[in-house]
Design goal:
elongated, alpha/beta, 3 domains, 14% strand, 36% helix, Rossmann fold, 12 helices, 362 residues, 434 Repressor (Amino-terminal Domain), six-stranded parallel sheet
Length: 362
Amino acid sequence: MPVKIKRGSKPVNGLSGPISMQQVAEHAGVSRSAVSLALQHHPSIPASTRDRIRAAAQELGYRPNPLVTALMRSRRTVTHASTVRASLGFLTADAPTDRWRDATTHRNFYAAATTRAVERGFSLEEFSASDPQMRPERLIDLLQARGIHGILVAPLTGQKNTLPFNLTGFSVVGLGTSVQAPEIDRVADDHFYAAHLAYNQARGLGYRRIGFALAADISRRLEHRWLSGYLVAQQQHSPRTRIQVFMPETREEIPLGLNAWIARHRLDAVIFALRDQKKMSCAPVGTGLISLSVHDNSHITGIRQDEFRIGAEAIDLLVEKLQRWDTGSPRSPRLQLVRGVWCAGQSAPGAGLSRQALLPEK
């Protein structure tokens, strides 16, 4: 049955507070049901009328409550045995689109976010901003058609720091610090605290000449937070123990100059901004090796990031933003930090002791 269109209503002026769907209807000169259907791209509303209603909504600053929208959509389609559950989007930007699953950290983020989303009454659906068959405009239309207004952004890979996505109309939270444009709220590991803690724990093991090896491209992506933590920790001790950081451009270059740097500075321990056992094993066996990113059941000494808490807190922040209708780029972006913990391991047994082999002998 076609929707009856009202004619001759006057524009709404001097509005204050949240704009209602009824006010949009009066401004556009249509019924409230026509507004509801038009904003859902329903084919019963002529395209010209849909455009007019959407223009009126934009002019008035109307923003639908995404939670109510999802609930009403579910009521129209849900069976008696089903559970009403709104959806959140998990947006990746990898090429190929499933490459993010190669990283244990990213898989842990996703697992924690999925579990937390269900606990908060949502499901988490994966979308790719780098899918060659999905233009950005088409992706936005798809999300809106599915009633998805909350987006959790996966860490960007490689040297990417820009998200190719228009945030207008969406609540957005990023995992990690890699997304630097557009500005968004993010939840990440406390890298500064991790490097500072690792340095002091190394001193507690008796090490005194403690170096730091990291790739410059990684340091930039993390806004130099690991580097800052290490440098500040050094300043708290004798100038004689302050070591120049070993920072080639990429992690692949670390093994090439590692041993010469260790010998030049007479290091007894090295903090690495990686967990690659092959690259770390290039160091002499008398050098303690500490990683700023270790996983459970690892024999590597270092910091274990709380990846599951990061994923869960990112969902909590996203739901909070949805409930406030907080969309688009924030005026004051938040960086919510989660501290990791120190894990003793075989790769740094203590000053004067040779570590066990990190890799099995061939």
